[in-house]
Amino acid sequence: MKKITFIAHSVLDIIFPNNCEICNCSLTQKEKFICLNCVFDLPFINRHQYQIESLQKLFWGRVDIQSVHSLFNYQKESNTQQILHAIKYKKRTKLGHYMGRMMGKQLDLTSSLDYIIPIPLHPKKEKERGFNQSLVLALGLQEIIDVKIENSVISRVKINKSQTKFSKYDRWDNVNKIFKLNNPKTLENKHILLVDDVLTTGATIESCAIEILNKVNCKISIATLAARI
User: Fold this and answer.
1) Do 62 and 90 form a contact (C-beta atoms < 8 A)?
2) N- to C-terminal Cα distance for the chain?
3) Which domain holds residue 132?
4) Are 117 and 150 in contact, with CB atoms under 8 Å apart?
5) Looking at the DSSP assignment, which residues form a beta bridge with residue 73?
6) For 118-173, how does the pLDDT look when each residue is reduced to its tens digit (9 = 90+)?
7) What is the pLDDT of residue 176?
8) What is the domain-level CATH number for residue 95?
9) Which residues does residue 118 pair with via DSSP β-bridges, in sequence order?
10) What is the rounded CA–CA span in Å between residue 112 and residue 190?
11) 81, 88 in Cβ contact below 8 A?
């Protein structure tokens, strides 16, 4: 039976090559999406205490956030960027789901969470892309930490331009008032986890958090796949 399974996998690998998303080498049957060598080289934030401390300070003096969690340090033209681009622009949703599970296993997330809320895309943008990468990550994360996803309580009501086109100081104006809280009572006295793919200046997540905290008394924590610190 094992021999038949091995042959079947070998045939499938010829028809549908199973290669590492980072280095493009062939994966073994025990590897998923990223080879072990590339996983070892990924910049995990939880390996460096000073990066963990820097992450917690990102929103100080801006908005009241309980805790901030991120799996990888983000830099342009890095392995982390390759993973993010594969999920977001190459529609590697299975990779995104796998990364969400890795977030759940690696991040020190509190058990007191009531809801996971993926940062929403504008409906037009989500229709064009075909999916919301934050929701894909959240679905993988949910499988590990077993917290309910609330995907309708907040919506994106404006299409803002890509944040990459703006300076650090102009990004806030680009995302100001782009979110709307639909049912505040759902979040009353709850502890929610906002989930997004990448945290750079934090302007988008800050805008979402402010919209929520202006309307309801609750606690907010943040989890992203990557963060620039």
Assistant:
1) no
2) 49
3) 43-227
4) yes
5) 227
6) 999 999 999 999 999 999 999 999 999 999 999 999 999 988 666 456 555 555 56
7) 78
8) 3.40.50
9) 195
10) 9
11) no
